[in-house]
Amino acid sequence: MKNANRFSALHFHFGYDALRNAYIVSRNGLSSQSYNAENTVRERMGLSQGELPADTDGDESHPSTKETFDDFVAELIMEVDLAEALIRNAFAIALFHFWERQSNTWLGVDAYDHGKVIAYLHERGGKPDEATIRILWKLANCLKHGPGKACNALKVLAPHLLAKNLEEKAFPSDTDFVLQDKDIEQFFEAVLRAGPAIGLSNWRGPKGSNS
């Protein structure tokens, strides 16, 4: 049923694109806030565009206006950095759940089975990045559930995701793993490449459908 197979592939790509675009919009919005941090603080302090506050020392027991300005800028950038970390974590979880739902549909099952879906993809001529998808799987569970089997497994699978100086921690928690933009990009790429390419004749869609 070629039409059904094509629909399955289109459904995957529409869902993937929606998630990817949501991530890009979220990241770009925060990057803009960080880039414009000084202007944002100027506006809040009633300063004009490009104006810097006068560095009036005055009473040494109180910070100067310039010091206050710098502190506000640093605080705003720190808040953006924290928000970016939350976005990366949230989209790592969302991306795995997208992959999980697609995989369960292909196999006609209710519970995710990593080994079976990788085998299923190989049977259909695919070349999934098994290692990266496994890391995404464990990462999503670690971020959701905290310390436990998933975090312990993630430490072994992806020690590079551990925060600096925590590589030797025996039982890591979800807060010990720090994602960078390049990590999220790698996860998105792995999911895209593992999924069906629109128009591929060897993609049979959900289990039980015919070519």
Write a structural description:
It is a single chain. The protein is an all-alpha fold. The protein contains seven helices and no strands. It has a domain at 2-33 and 89-194. Helix 3 (65-107) crosses helix 5. Residues 59-63 and 200-206 have low confidence and may be disordered.
Terminal CA distance reads 6 Å
Count of alpha and pi helical runs? 7
* Amount of helix: 55-70%
Q: Assign the structural class, choosing from mainly alpha, mainly beta, alpha/beta, alpha+beta, or little secondary structure.
A: mainly alpha
Low-confidence stretches: 59-63, 200-206
Summarize the biggest pleated sheet: none
Quote the beta fraction.
under 5%
Per DSSP E runs of 2 or more residues, the count of β-strands stands at 0
Radius of gyration: 23 Å
**Mean pLDDT, as a whole number?**
83
**Shape category:** elongated
Give me the strand/helix succession: HHHHHHH
Task: Set down the secondary structure blueprint.
Elements lengths: L1 H34 L1 H8 L20 H43 L6 H10 L6 H16 L3 H9 L23 H14 L17
Helix pairs in contact: 1-3, 2-3, 3-5, 3-7, 5-6, 5-7
Summarize this structure briefly.
The protein is mostly helical and 211 residues long. The chain has helices at residues 2-35, 37-44, 65-107, 114-123, 130-145, 149-157, 181-194. 20% of the residues are buried.
Q: Keywords, please?
A:
single chain, 7 helices, elongated, mainly alpha, 64% helix, 211 residues
